[in-house]
# Entry
Amino acid sequence: MKKKERQPKKYPRLTHPRVRDANGQLVRASWDEALDRAAGGFDRAVTAHGPDAFGMLSCARATNEMNYVAQKFTRVVIGTNNVDSCNRTCHAPSVAGLSAAFGSGGGTSSYEEAEHTDLIVMWGSNARFAHPIFFHHVLKGIRNGARMYAVDPRRTSTAEWAEGWLGLNVGTDIPLAHAVGREIIHAGLANHAFIERATSGFAEYAAEVEPWTLSAAEQVTGVPAAAIRELAHAYARAERAQLCWTLGITEHHNGTDNVRALINLSLLTGHVGRYGSGLQPLRGQNNVQGGGDMGAIPNRLPGFQDLLEEPVRAKFEAAWDTVIQPRHGRTLTEMFEAMETGELRTVYCIGENPAQSEADSEQAVRRLSALDHLVVQDIFLTRTAQLADVVLPAAAAWCETDGTTTNSERRVQRVRKAVEPPGEALEDIEIICRLAHRLGHDWTFADAETVWNELRSVSPDHFGMTYDRLAAHQGIQWPCPSVDRLEPTYLHGRLWERDPGRRGVPAPFGIVRHDPPVDLTDDAYPIRLTTGRRLDSYNTGVQSGGYASPLRRGENIELCPEDAARLGVRAGEEVRVASRRGAVTAPVWIEPGLRPGLAFMTMHFPDEVDTNLLTIEANCPIAGTAEFKASAIRVEKLPATTGTR
# Structure
């Protein structure tokens, strides 16, 4: 069979505003025309249907300052809390789980601590490909004597560096974590002094994990009992241990429960609140942590302050001269559902590409297309921008604007403008302010530092981070409430205080139960598809697809040698991959790191192979994240064709 060439699509840089004309085409427009059209559409929707007919999708790749202004626009100019970002697609369960346990949604440790710990557990994380900067810290830790265990359905590149690999069945993380916890308890390795002093709910937790013996967990997870026991003893006996996870834990219909199951292990052993011992959800984008910190989420105001608390709202209402709705807004997931019902009529999408990043992408496109008014602000003409009524060209946050970003160790770092944006493209904040002006709010910010200082005035965790201090220290981790000192690099040291008053609220164990994947495999769809990232590409490929990489091989469906032989397919052969939602064609890649019955694909090349046509929109009821990691598929040989080789 002649091999089909699959090259990633190169998206054109946006240099001029565009509006949709009477013939349905996106055509060049002046800034005044585009902004008038954008603001007019927002105003019509809000006037006719109320402020909750509006939704803001903010950007996890833009600066903290942009995210602060975007959520302020949503709450002050429009009057709704309907603001969210791609945090919902990936790490919202991490934020929800950590908040439920500790009252704060950030990772508890610094990257440097991975270099000085005794044990590193990479759970559902191929960090060598998906988080290569962090993985350099892991490698330093290994060279310094740390042991590493990898828990992943695939024997990934990360697992190659591990002392032990636990290849569990997709969607069985809770049984495995419960079995590790039970073994720690029964082996007498639980840190009872810490449990009694700093936690609550231990008796209920112990009862919940009791049925998950090593043998029972082996039957469900596929991990040998001896390997489970080894991990349990290694984690509990370590003086210091880091438990790290990524989307292999969160992108499930019960992602928040998965996170709570891992947090339980840290509470059981006291591996939290100390240097070198902590919990680290690894964020895949440069400012997915910062977007949430800035309030670009529907349930928190800047500084991760709960908008349901009246004193918190009162502080922001006074600062912003507005009234904030005393209820949570819609998550990204709920916004898409509201598009279906007609409750959400207009969306302002800044730097996101949900037409290709959402699960069940065909449904996502249909919902976006049904909006009365869609405004997209971006640096490229993405698939989402191609659906818009108005397209606004923005500056690239990482090199064409000033500001800050926050990485997954909570470190706020400066971003400095290096080049001018092309054509008529403007910085995001200026565009938002011009729209705000057209809607009756005369906003002006002299520069990004002015925005940051406004944020500092309302967020205690950021108050001590002046631009000068950020530059002097090459970044500062929050919390930083004082301009005179720096806090420890780790969170929740209070849990180790002897004084109950200083110790604060105990961290509760999460009582969670095993809930298998929604999309069950059967005779019609016998293979479990899981998705993830590769080192050479980034997300939906809009930014990385235009650049060559010697590592890039386009999209494939990865199969183990046994499944390829059973199906009678060879490496490079095009096959049809079908789920209960759609089908794509893709070449086969033979991957020895997979086990029979498991396949792997990425979302990097949706214009050539739209993997998210296959994934299921089964959402975590707490965080709203979809189950990208567990779709049921079948793989079919294509009819033989004749042609020139």
